[in-house]
Description:
By secondary structure, the chain is mainly α. It contains ten helices and two strands, in the order αααααββααααα. Strands 1-2 form a two-stranded antiparallel sheet. The longest helix has about 35 residues, at about 240-275.
Amino acid sequence: MRWIYFILLQCLLIVIVAGTVCIHKDSVILVKKPPESLSQWYKPENKRQVWLHNMFKLRREMQAVRFYSDSKDAKHLGKWAGSLSDHYLKIAEMVPEWKELLDMEVISRLEKNAKAGRYQDVSHALDDLRESCESCHSDYRAITAAMYRAPDFTSLKINPSTSFKAHMKKLTQEVNQIKIASEDGMKDIALSSLSDLKKDINLLGETCVNCHKKGAKVYPSDTISKTISSLEQSLKTGTAKEQGRDLGTLAVLACARCHGTHRLAYDARKIFSDKPRWLELIKHQ
């Protein structure tokens, strides 16, 4: 009897979860998260992007196999088919949880056909292998890129007492304060806010070198600095239209362009990396 109650309880839990997801079906997205063992092949756990390099090798080898199969070049076909097999099998070594997803029959068939010089059969096997690869890519490629290739600003600080998130919020407030004061004819407040914004943009730029280590300073660019100067002048003597144009240009150059690259990727990373907030989901929040 106890087992019956246990089974009924499990069924009830499944119904509750399924019902919750169904109720929120317009706002719930179900994804397959990759195994945690995959993280060891990405930065920062690994100095090199080992997983990516193995994927790049596979893509190059598949192209070479196709080329030499079509050319009926047995010598080079054998070389590249062997490399393709080695790096395909390496997937199971790197992420054991994905071993069962590998199509061992098709990679074996491809290599045997390559050795035997059955070029058309090699081509067919390659088509099957590509289809197998695409099925995994459909499930995991986007979420893996978001989790392991997107930037992580969580631990980044402007200084010991100011988090990156707090500083970005301050920048937003300064931009809005300039707009508010400009519209209401408060020139001194607008100029004071612009001075603060300029200082804080430069502070932000000092953190960018953590990743952008090569070449000239990327932020703020010369164009951003010139736009700040133009905005300062228009706030002093320009028309409302000129002030709005310069502030809009600055917002695009100093905020929107970086957000389009970094914030979108970072937000996606947090969605997949943070723990599910089931209580919020149940509360309809």
